[in-house]
Write the structure tokens for this entry.
Amino acid sequence: MSFKPINISQQDARWKNIKLGFSNDSTIGVYGCALTSVCMWLSGFGYPETPDKLNEKLKQRNGYQQDAIVWSAVSAIYPNVKFKSLIICTDANAPIDLIAASIASGQPVILEVDNSPKAGLQTHWVVAYAKVGKDFLILDPWPNPPEQGNDISLMRYSQGKELKRSIMAVVLYECQTAGDGSSPTPPPLNDGSLYVRVGEAVTAGLRIRSAPSTASDTLSLEITGAYLKVLEPEAALRSKIGMNDQWLRISNAVGVEGFVAAWLVVATTVGGSPPPPPPPPEDDKTIKRIRASIGDGLESVPTSVAAEKRLAASPTQSGSYRLVADIWNRYGGILGALSAKLNIESGVAVATLGVESGGQAFGIDGRTLIRFENHLFYTYWGKNNLDKFNKFFAFNNNQRWMGHKWRSDPKKAWTDFHGNQAREWDVFSFARSLDESAAMLSISMGAPQIMGFNFGVIGYASVQDMFAAFARSDRDQVIAFFDFIQGTLPNAGAVKVLQARNFLQFATIYNGSGQAPTYAGLINSGYTAFLSLYAGLPVQPPSPPPDPAAPPDNPPPTPDPVDGDMSVEVLSSAGKTGLKMFQKPRIEAGVITTLSVGMVLRVLDADKGEVRKHLGKKNEWVYVRDYQARKGYVQAMFVGEKTNSPVTFSILDLAEPESITVYVAGSAGKSGLLLRVQPTSYAPSVKSLPVNTTLQVLDDPLIASQKVGVYNQWIKVKEPLGAEGYVAAWFVKR
């Protein structure tokens, strides 16, 4: 593979007046030296390019920041051309030896030079392709017509300086395979993958980082509007997108993998098949029911919660807190009414809906969330149409819920589709063309992921009625979830289980015995989080009677808060490790529990006035009770009065959420599973963990349980000897 010097001028009449990149005034003829240098570099390796064509290709791949080229975007167009680095030399000597070594290996270098002896830097880019003594031969994009057949020295742009001080920047590419003389079409973004886009508010670029933290290394800087491929399951994307303190694992156009701040990107419908036009609005009368709904009579109740009852989870709180706050704020109005009807606590309703649904009703393209089950479509249609079914659908006969694949053409390769809503809808739409009812019976729908074959359990006349209702609104889906709970066992048995807060038994009913302990623990965590957040809401004045009589001359006085209930809140000064509750008012006493920042506590000291004098002071103690009815002493210097917070703790039997335990799966092989210092395959390893090693999960249990067995996910763990680190979630099991 050899480089053939080819001269191209940026001032060629065919493209000199074309706007450069996304600029409104810069043209290729005046400012297109970097673009034209790339064209000469590519053309010399058998990838013929002209500035006008490459300009458009780069724009399609977000390869400009206004008129400044994004060097790495070239590799998105030419996968065999690897962008290696950009070295800035304005304040240091240029790496002459590195430039010479690259050229000696057959890889020319693109250099930034100063094109004028005037004061300041007049930027110009050239291609250095050969070394002659202490000088380099270059391809210069400025002359028109191009300087064919002449050896042009880099000293032309030295401005009287040594070369090491006349080079301002160095761009290194590596051509791994020479071209055949044709210009390829950029790889399409529409490859069925999930993508996010850098938000418009990001004006200085979005950093791809080596770990999910602002303290980690920057791997790349992405411009506003750049598309990034998501390397996490769609469920994780939906739960994180736009959320503070959440990170997404992604890769950019040139394959750099890392993490970006989820609150700085927006979802995009790029990937998979475009959604069909939305159906016309359903007329309520066309959705038929065969029995009453728990939601009947609640039509005037708003779906969302009132503004004064909205919950706010802080960035330092776990995913369980953020999930229940999101569920309550979106659906708290109807959830509160449903809870009252079913005689269950609102916190139970929120936690149950959150864990069993994730709170997401529709995908990023606006269509109902679904999961198509091949083995069920076989039951409802395939077994009677076996030859045709086997051409398009596949599943594992021994474990029917696994190995699901499909293809739209028997001549094409089999494709996985679970975890990607665009593909789920592709399969469902295809199956629907074969038999609509069978296809609808074979999907789980919406936020609660209720199977279509349960349409009768939740009171609909047909699966089509259920499908239409779920597509109509997320409110219908929330109500259907509680219709299902009420109807899944005789005499509303599942409702009675929730009334007793028996989360293990409920999870056994809803999820099956195998996963019951996991889901029970998650519901318990969500319930605990809700109680803690709800306890911090301000006191609401009682509603006046609907038609009051004349007010009395002497209304009763407002109770004096000094002698009434008093609450305190754990202050941020307690630090990340939290505030310890002791058995007695001294440090040497036994520790009862650790209280996180923001937790609200009921004061049990009789003299509230005396307590107020002690708050914030050293060597003083306050006797308190937490929301789990644990009583003990906390240091007064780390708590402050929560004057606007009613705290009603009546839950006496709620246990601490148990940490999740996972094991190294057999798929890790004889060499075992590496425990790493960061959640990436490139991070240094701490040690190797043999198959079946027990690992204590240190991440939030709600989030961690969704990662187990999922490719490209990482879990923070502690191994039996106490070492902590990250393991690949796809090599662990419950």
